[in-house]
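Ticket 4471: requesting a sanity check on a complex prediction with FE2/S2 (inorganic) cluster. Repro inputs:
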Amino acid sequence: MIIKSLIFINVFSVVIGILLIILERIIASYGEVTITMNEDKEFRASGGQSLLRILFENKYFIPSACGGKGTCGYCKLVVKEGGGDVLPTEALILSPAETRQGFRLSCQVKVRGDMKIEVPPEYLEIQEYEGEIVSTELVTSDIRKIRFQITGDETIKFRPGQYVQIKLDNDGTTDYRAYSIASNPDDDNHIELNVKLIPEGLGSEYMHSLKEGDPVFFSGPYGDFFLDADSGRRIICVAGGVGLAPIKSIVEYWKSHAMDREIEIYYGCRTRKDLYYHDVFEKMETENPNFHYYPALSEEDPEWKGARGFIHSLMEKHLGEGEHSEAYLCGPPIMIEAVMEVLKEKGVPEERVLFDKF
Ligand SMILES: Cc1cc2nc3c(=O)[nH]c(=O)nc-3n(C[C@H](O)[C@H](O)[C@H](O)COP(=O)(O)OP(=O)(O)OC[C@H]3O[C@@H](n4cnc5c(N)ncnc54)[C@H](O)[C@@H]3O)c2cc1C
Ligand code: FES
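Returned structure tokens:
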């Protein structure tokens, strides 16, 4: 009797489960919708998904560094018609002025009917690529240098400082994570990334698991954090930890183009073992009078004879008058904020300070 009851309960649960799935599909289906983009492009899509996902499925690659969690704000674009009300999650990120101009977070807007949107034209140039891992190397206790080649003869045109988005398969759903390109844009068939392992992090654990020969799918290039190659001004680069990745690309470009501009690298880490490009920078300093390197460690290290403390304090000491300079900052938000204050004090104009926070 007990066994019969258990079988009945199990069968009943399975039937209810299947009915719920079917019901959810029916309710969540909004049928076919038409998306009109920049007034001259039109495509059909199945409603019920986020606008960001629909755009990706149709090969329009909108920056989405947080993978659609509604926290980075990179996916904002103008929805002219059909977007419904601004959601509380969007109101946390969008400024009142942006909301008035019709900006929405495309990862949060669910497509329920026809829609008219405006996408910046530069986004339409972002493409999808497939690559193959050629090498992977642990360069600190938690940062891995990963190099891949773009399949076939395809090349990617990017500027030093920009990033790519790696496609991740997450239990049947697709996710994305942003990683700055650490290599020189002149090598347009290869990409190097420097990825810090975040325990239980979806993207970073996946990147650290990749082996030579594995395929990798990505889109890019993204971002307006890149070197102004023709300004002629002094370049100030500030990196914290793995924030060195885009700075490394800038330095390699500066070197290979034999730029005669002064470049100052401020690089802050916790311990000596975390300074993963230290020897290369030290050597460059001896070879080129325009290259200046200022590393600092925030933790006690008896072996370390260099500067101690936070990187903004070192900048206060070494950075001269900043009017004819431009600055590129990459690292944790707290570092960026402290460095911005120093740059302001030194007279670096605000519009010439670019940053990527992560
Ligand atoms: C423009 C841009 C460029 C970037 N470039 C790089 C790069 O070159 N190299 C690189 O390593 N990363 C880079 N990042 C960060 C990267 O995109 C991911 O956010 C990071 O790898 C964590 O993702 P995850 O999937 O491993 O962790 P998730 O699965 O997203 O998060 C797992 C958990 O870890 C927490 N967490 C997330 N990030 C951190 C962190 N930094 N420290 C502590 N806890 C954290 C989350 O809150 C969550 O609880 C960049 C981000 C942006 C926006
Ligand atoms: S993808 Fe990050 S806020 Fe939308």
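Notes from triage: The two ends are 60 Å apart (CA to CA). Leaving this open until the requester confirms.
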